[in-house]
Amino acid sequence: HELQAGMDTAIADHAFALRYQPIVQVDDTALAGFEALIRWPHARRGMVPPDQFITLAEESGHIMPLGAWVLDHAAREISRWQRAHPRTPPLRASVNVSARQFRDPGLLDVVRRTLRSSGLAPGSLVLELTESVLMHGDVQIGTTMRALKDLGVSIAIDDFGTGFSSLSYLREFPIDLLKVDKTFIDDITTDRQQVALVEGIVRIAEVLGLQVVAEGIENEDQRALLADMGCRYGQGFLFARPLTAHQAEDFLHRAA
Ligand code: G
Ligand code: G
Ligand code: MN
Ligand code: NA
After folding, report:
1. Is the ipTM of this complex over 0.85?
2. Which of 54, 94, 162, 194 has the most Cβ atoms closer than 10 angstroms to its Cβ?
């Protein structure tokens, strides 16, 4: 596979790029942080989206160095923005971590090193895991999560509701945040069942002390409905698309 063959070189050359999508408070659209999203600027294929190479990188093991680069790069940039535009609460840096990367015994050291070298406050770092990470029933997963919690790092479940999640995971693991998948948000203004599901997730999260981020908010009606439900955070094209670092700093400057 051409992309797989080019990955060693691309990693060595730091040939990847990050985009940063703002995460805001749903009620007043105040900026809360950014989610880092990887891209591969490829000579012939243009800007390759993660769907086309993250699975390959997981299969080959490239995800470990690649994931470490994403963490380090995102933490450094967002930490720098926080210092340049101080704000309370501090900006959050949300980083996607794939299942194999999370199970790798080296992950904790990568996170510790990232926090040290970037100066990012541990409380500002959010690691986004998919439900597939929790499914393996591996005791190691819980141990790693608790070690991350001890460092002060937060854990989010990404694409919540789309996988084979069991509600018992929410008690079993030290999770801080649920990201409600876009597919639940899409029809929220027209489908009463979707409203009930999202409202149910928000209520459960409230009881369990979890924060909620609604993903893929594209219009004002969706925003208003989610605000009425008490969903605290959101992201989506209504607020901003994934931005270049330069655009993200502009966004931050205007928001401050
Ligand atoms: O940015 P985009 O919508 O194309 O992202 C598609 C998918 O790729 C999303 O599910 C997102 O979580 C995932 N993704 C984006 N960046 C990263 C990354 O740095 N690491 C991992 N493991 N997944 C990522
Ligand atoms: O799975 P994850 O939540 O990490 O995926 C984030 C992806 O969703 C990003 O690649 C981003 O481009 C995409 N995305 C974010 N907001 C919106 C939106 O409002 N509409 C659509 N269609 N995609 C979005
Ligand atoms: Mn995500
Ligand atoms: Na994701």
Report:
1. yes
2. 94
